[in-house]
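PROTEIN DESIGN WORKSHEET
SECTION A - STRUCTURE
LENGTH: 284
TOKENS:
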């Protein structure tokens, strides 16, 4: 069984292109997941599956731009895997046309771990929780995604991450959605320095994968976001990132960016100077 959630959009969810910002989609996924786990199954009454979990990994594929509208966007969510101490939720964000066709904007997966926040430790799923998740189970036979590379970052794309008090959830940890915002800020800041002196360039995000290693906590000192270029194509590039506290890795991410033509609303090949500066950062 799949759970369907009708998610209202907010005007503030848009970016400068008039599209729903890539960071906001992850907020929509969280809303759909919490609604699914708080309203169905024998474990719903405790709320622990909805709120007493931490995100171990996000895999997000952006399929098509979503424009703001007063009509809610539909989100289907279901479970693809149940293990001893983790479970995976898959999602599809879409609108249905009057003819009954589906316009898909995003597909994603989230790996979650039940967590005892008082003791700061993961725990195993209970039988009641497994029964609840089993009601949404549709096993996925596709091969698992490759883990993120363990390359070394480039100081050219370093960004200090300042945590706001509003970024922190009720457990004192930075909410998983905010990591996407930190990565976006680091990417925009780094490209502004990298392409200084060139005309502004429009980019969209095609794919974001994030592995969560340890919690980020509120504090006055910034954390470090280190990014580097791992692939450069004619119309796209891949940026790998680490969020660190000194030498300790807190999160690892990979983002595929696409060069975008606002006039045609399609990918485009940028002028050579943009690619040259990206290629200069590739590992030798």
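SECTION B - SEQUENCE
RESIDUE ASSIGNMENT:
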């Amino acid at each position: 069984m799949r759970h369907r959630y009708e998610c209202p959009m907010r005007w503030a969810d848009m970016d400068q292109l008039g599209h729903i910002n890539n960071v906001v989609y992850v907020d929509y996924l969280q809303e759909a997941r919490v609604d699914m786990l708080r309203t169905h199954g024998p474990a719903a009454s405790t709320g622990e599956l909805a709120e007493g979990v931490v995100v171990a990994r996000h895999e997000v594929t952006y399929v098509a731009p979503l424009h703001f509208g007063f009509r809610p966007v539909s989100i289907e969510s279901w479970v693809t895997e149940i293990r001893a101490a983790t479970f995976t939720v898959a999602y599809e964000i879409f609108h249905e046309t009057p003819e009954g066709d589906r316009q898909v904007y995003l597909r994603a997966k989230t790996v979650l771990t039940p967590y005892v926040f008082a003791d700061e430790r993961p725990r195993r799923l209970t039988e009641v929780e497994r029964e609840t998740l089993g009601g949404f189970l549709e096993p996925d036979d596709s091969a698992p995604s490759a883990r993120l590379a363990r390359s070394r970052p480039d100081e050219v794309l370093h960004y200090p991450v300042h945590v706001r008090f509003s970024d922190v959830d009720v457990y004192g940890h930075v909410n998983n959605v905010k990591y996407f915002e930190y990565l976006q800020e680091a990417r925009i800041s780094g490209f502004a320095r990298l392409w200084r002196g060139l005309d502004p360039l429009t980019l969209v995000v095609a794919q974001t994968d994030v592995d969560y290693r340890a919690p980020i906590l509120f504090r006055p000192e910034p954390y470090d976001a280190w990014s580097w270029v791992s692939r450069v194509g004619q119309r796209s590039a891949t940026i790998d990132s680490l969020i660190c506290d000194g030498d300790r890795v807190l999160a690892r991410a990979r983002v595929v960016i696409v060069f975008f033509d606002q006039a045609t609303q399609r990918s485009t090949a940028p002028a050579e100077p943009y690619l040259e500066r990206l290629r200069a950062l590739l590992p030798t």
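SECTION C - NOTES
The chain has a mean pLDDT of 92.
The domain at 1-145 is CATH 3.10.129.10 (Thiol Ester Dehydrase; Chain A).
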